[in-house]
UniProtKB/TrEMBL annotation:
<dbReference type="InterPro" id="IPR011333">
    <property type="entry name" value="SKP1/BTB/POZ_sf"/>
</dbReference>
<protein>
    <recommendedName>
        <fullName>BTB domain-containing protein</fullName>
    </recommendedName>
</protein>
<feature type="region of interest" description="Disordered">
    <location>
        <begin position="265"/>
        <end position="287"/>
    </location>
</feature>
């Protein structure tokens, strides 16, 4: 389990800080005289501040301790040598509709609760759990820039596509778990990775294999990227590009469609704003 954020007040709003005096006098609660709740500070959202707290209903405020008091669920992730048993608290997992349905199948008499995720990667699930407890996952975005935190174990340029694939797998896991916030976060990090042509092809292959054809968040940008850069990047990864087009004909179709659309757009602009002396004539037969 990830560590609780150092600033506990950022996670649970509404708690007063300072020393608490203990008293032996009874506390009398007068009906109807409860103090009004304090307005949130500037830049602070209403609610309890926990990840996915906006989806929680009920008058009572759910605290971070309430989450940690909930049953611990075992998560069997991956296969073979990469398989591992992770754990997470049920109330946090249930912020995902997918996990809420899965946990709803447990009976109260069950002492050991486990959910199998053998088709998911260990790294992607680890990023999901880190996001679940902290609201983000490593590497984090550097505020005010399009860069990610530096990881000494990864190269500055993603030549293999591994860094792109890391966030793509988190994105598709967010799709499976029905967590739009996780998908949005992973997508934003994809655009921060500096990659090569071969890395982009590896990423494109995964995207076209694991996303729906109507996906506009990461699939459409892949086609747009290659439509605008294929004439220069194809030489750097010609074999990989050809293999990608043969393996995923839809990829070739999407790229070609965008290239032709852009050509038609340019021709239309040329007709609307012709350059003097640049008109073309059809070649005629012998005069």
């Amino acid at each position: 389990m990830a560590e609780t954020p150092a600033n506990y007040e950022d996670l649970i709003h509404g708690n007063e800080t300072g020393d608490v005096e203990m008293s032996t006098e009874p506390v009398v609660e007068i009906e109807g005289s409860a103090a009004p709740s304090a307005a949130p500070a500037e830049g602070e959202e209403e609610g309890n501040g926990l990840p996915f707290a906006e989806g929680l209903d009920g008058a009572a405020r759910v605290t971070y301790i309430d989450y940690l008091k909930s049953p611990v669920i075992g998560l069997l992730v991956g296969q073979g040598d990469e398989q591992a048993l992770l754990t997470a608290h049920q109330m946090l997992l249930e912020t995902s509709p997918w996990f809420k349905d899965a946990c709803g199948k447990f009976s109260d008499e069950v002492s050991e609760r486990r959910i199998d995720l053998i088709d998911e990667g260990l790294d992607a699930v680890g990023c999901f759990l880190e996001f679940l407890y902290t609201g983000d996952y490593f590497p984090r975005k550097i505020p005010g820039s399009r860069d990610l935190e530096r990881d000494p174990q990864t190269p500055a340029v993603d030549e293999t596509g591994d860094q792109l694939l890391k966030h793509a797998r988190v994105y598709t896991l967010g799709e499976t778990l029905n967590l739009p916030a996780l998908k949005s976060l992973a997508s934003s990090k994809i655009h921060c990775v500096n990659s090569t042509a071969k890395g982009e092809i590896a990423y494109a292959r995964y995207v076209y294999a694991h996303t729906h054809k109507d996906d506009t968040t990461i699939r459409a940008p892949v086609a747009n990227f290659w439509a605008t850069r294929s004439h220069t990047l194809r030489a750097e990864a010609e074999d990989e590009f050809r293999s990608m087009c043969l393996e995923f004909p839809r990829f070739g179709y999407d790229v070609l469609t965008r290239v032709l659309d852009e050509k038609l757009k340019r021709e239309k602009q040329e007709k609307m704003h012709p350059t003097p002396g640049s008109s073309r004539k059809r070649p005629r037969g012998g005069v």
